[in-house]
Amino acid sequence: MAASTTETPVGRVKPSRLIDLEQHKDERGCISVAESQWTAGFPIRRVYFLHDLTDGTSRGGHAHRELEQLFIAAHGGFTIHVDDGHQRAEYRLDTPGTALYVGPMVWRDLRDFTPGGVCLVLASHHYDEADYYREYEDFLRDSRRHA
Ligand code: TYD
């Protein structure tokens, strides 16, 4: 069961939110579906996944200027901390049937992966280092300027 610590929306440009994926279950198992138009709300141009993660590691530690993403716990679970420079929240993702939408100008940290956990990410744009904020102070300055 995916869960959030707060109802307060985090993301001034577009709020972060949990999305139930379309699922098709039968006696063989389950298919969970994410589509650009119906699920993500953005064109899915890139797919990547985090796997073979070192015990106790954290990922993320950045924000994006334009990028929109869906995060899915394809296997196991992890916690995403989101911060828009004003509000913070954390989401525990631990079911493949739920995605977390994270939009532009949201700092994110991914932590507390279960052993063997796999984080699937669907992204609106191709990889572009210029879209990243790598320094929290730079992100905070710009997020507060846009407020
Ligand atoms: P980064 O986005 O910082 O990873 P995470 O959010 O999981 O901590 O990326 C780590 C490295 O991988 C960095 O050198 C950039 C590279 N990378 C790509 O080349 N293409 C990609 O699509 C992604 C997501 C990362």
UniProtKB/TrEMBL annotation:
Please identify the protein, giving its name as recorded.
Answer: Sugar 3,4-ketoisomerase QdtA cupin domain-containing protein
Any Pfam family matching the protein: FdtA
| Coiled-coil segments on the chain, per record | none
The lineage's top-level taxon is Bacteria
Q: Where in this chain does the record put each Sugar 3,4-ketoisomerase QdtA cupin domain?
A: 16-141
